[in-house]
Amino acid sequence: MHMADALISPTVGGIMWAATAGLIAHCSRKISTNLEGSRVPLMGVLGAFIFAAQMINFTIPATGSSGHLGGGAILAILLGPHAAFLTIASVLTIQSLFFADGGILALGCNIFNLGFWPCFVAYPFIYKAITGHSPSRGRIVTGAMLASIAGLQLGAFSVVLETVASGISELPFETFVMIMQPIHLAIGLVEGLVTAAVVTFVWKARPEILAMAQGLGVRTAPSFRGVVTGLALAALVTGGALSWFASAHPDGLEWSMAKVSGKEELEAPADGIHAMLAGIQEKTALLPDYAFKAAEHESAQAEGEAPAAWPAVDAGTSTSGILGGAMTMLLAGALGLFLKKRQHRA
Amino acid sequence: MPKIDTSLFEIGTLDRLAAGDTDIHALDPRAKLVTTLAFILTVVSFGRYEVASLVPLLAFPLVLAILGRVPGPYLLRKLLIASPFAVMVGMFNPFLDQTVLLNVSGLNVTGGWVSFAAILLRFALSVTAALVLIATTGFAQVCMALTRLGTPRIFATQLLFLYRYIFVLTEEGLRMSRARDLRSFGRRGTGLRIYGFMLGQLLLRTMDRAGRIHRAMLCRGFDGEVRLNRRLRWRREDVLFVCGWLGFFALARVFNLPQELGQMLLKVIA
């Protein structure tokens, strides 16, 4: 569920970057004040452990397909929320830079979706609430299962909100939710089983590790103020995303109206930079140009003139666009050849 | 198993490429990082139906890849491996958006296909730019640039640690997986119970290793900061690089370059 740059708008990406950067700064401060340096190598090595764990698969009972560990919940349980959030953030950064798994602009979204929910919501309010100070096998299993499922459900829902708010994909909100939530329920179940298996193993073999993590968890547990700040931030972000969604909704309506009437108006993204850049762009760009023409047609229709068939395809503009596109490709190819040649000579 | 070995090998390839010494490699990592971020922002700021106007932006990854000697087939392969999510979400567009936007010699092109093409193009542009950044800069340098640009030091240190230990631990994970496969004949022992034990063991070993590493580092004077043996120098080339590309991005964003070119050509022909 790593989001790609191609599917998000600059506003959504920017807001989520800001939220994530704030969280990273907050966690870094928390760790450098509360903990001695010994946690940093542990965090790095456990992040690498998540990669290593993904090299080992297991057979999912009764299906024959295979699954592996995702990591959010287990890191939160072993490291406590702040260190775990930083570790997840670094794992995702490396995945995006080296494996192209999730985009750079989308990194803010991805870290938030996969880090914030398991570390600051599922871990303190579900896992810790269930296991408490006297963990038992049953409690650890229940807590790990529920925390994993809840974390992934919230993450998947955030993916849907961010995608819909960006308005690049045409998938309507309801359909996307109906696809994402059940899939991630299944993934969450598997993740929960794995997390529970590993945590119970560690609890039986070396209980002091969990006790240490729990102890550290208590010492570095999000203070009430921290939790409130985090939740307020989440509410702000969610509220912002929802309000875009609300303003994006008329687009969905327009889209269905377009199906009925065969008319469509270009939707304008609500954000400032985009609107400004688009404003400059509209005068010159190929397709918004069409949309403007369509709007003119609409007003013409309103004045009672003969309805012009939308889309009013201007053959001249299409031709020049395609010709120009082809020429640009050729130019790019020529540039490439030229640079290659020069390099060989050098 | 071959799949995993390949993916590890591929990280190694990026490292090997980053060790090159072309003009692009010599640029300040901050310049490359900032320009790449600006590039990605420019790419995603285009409207959802704009395909033609995105094409000139191909110049950025293309020029950097060629001058930085990043092999094209390698980039293409990485692009293909990473594509499923964008393709899967994007391929609904042609079915959901059926308004005709273009008419190319009698063939109607719907908005859905146009926006799908735009998604694929954005995807290709943003992913190749990120890969080229790493392939011409190297991870340690990127982390250094990040710290200089205000990322918390502890986070940058964490990234460096993580990157170093991926190789060690992944190999350990692979060895364990291979050993289990050789004993289980693809049937017994591949279930959740054994898997839990294996991961738990790997985890305990990992934590012990972290303890040893930390003690060893303390013995050598580690004070919470990883020092890199290269000074950052901001030279005239870096200013030119950043300003030149930012200017080009602005130009490509404001004017529809292919469209202008096409109109000019039509005028010449007419």
Structure, described:
The complex is a heterodimer of chains A (346) and B (270). Chain A is mainly alpha-helical and 346 residues long. Chain A folds into two domains: 5-249, Arp2/3 complex 21 kDa subunit ARPC3 (Orthogonal Bundle); 264-345, no CATH class. Chain A has twelve helices and two strands; from the N terminus they run ααββαααααααααα. In chain A, a hairpin with a 6-residue loop joins strand 1 (58-59) and strand 2 (66-67). In chain A, helix 1 (10-34) packs across helix 5, helix 2 (39-53) crosses helix 4 and helix 6 (137-166) runs antiparallel to helix 7 (173-205). With 270 residues, chain B is mainly α. A two-stranded antiparallel sheet of chain B has the order 1-2. Chains A and B meet through helix 1, helix 2, strand 1, helix 4 and helix 7 of A and helix 1, helix 3, helix 4, helix 5 and helix 6 of B.
Q: What's the layout of helices and strands?
A:
The complex is a heterodimer of chains A (346) and B (270).
Chain A: H1 10-34, H2 39-53, E1 58-59, E2 66-67, H3 72-79, H4 81-98, H5 107-131, H6 137-166, H7 173-205, H8 207-219, H9 224-261, H10 272-282, H11 286-302, H12 315-345
Antiparallel strand pairs in A: 1-2
Helix pairs in contact in A: 1-4, 1-5, 1-9, 2-4, 3-4, 3-5, 3-6, 3-7, 4-5, 5-6, 6-7, 6-9, 7-8
Chain B: H1 2-18, H2 23-26, H3 29-44, H4 59-67, H5 72-82, H6 84-90, H7 93-96, E1 100-104, E2 107-110, H8 111-137, H9 139-148, H10 153-184, H11 192-219, H12 236-254, H13 257-269
Antiparallel strand pairs in B: 1-2
Helix pairs in contact in B: 1-8, 3-8, 3-12, 4-8, 9-10
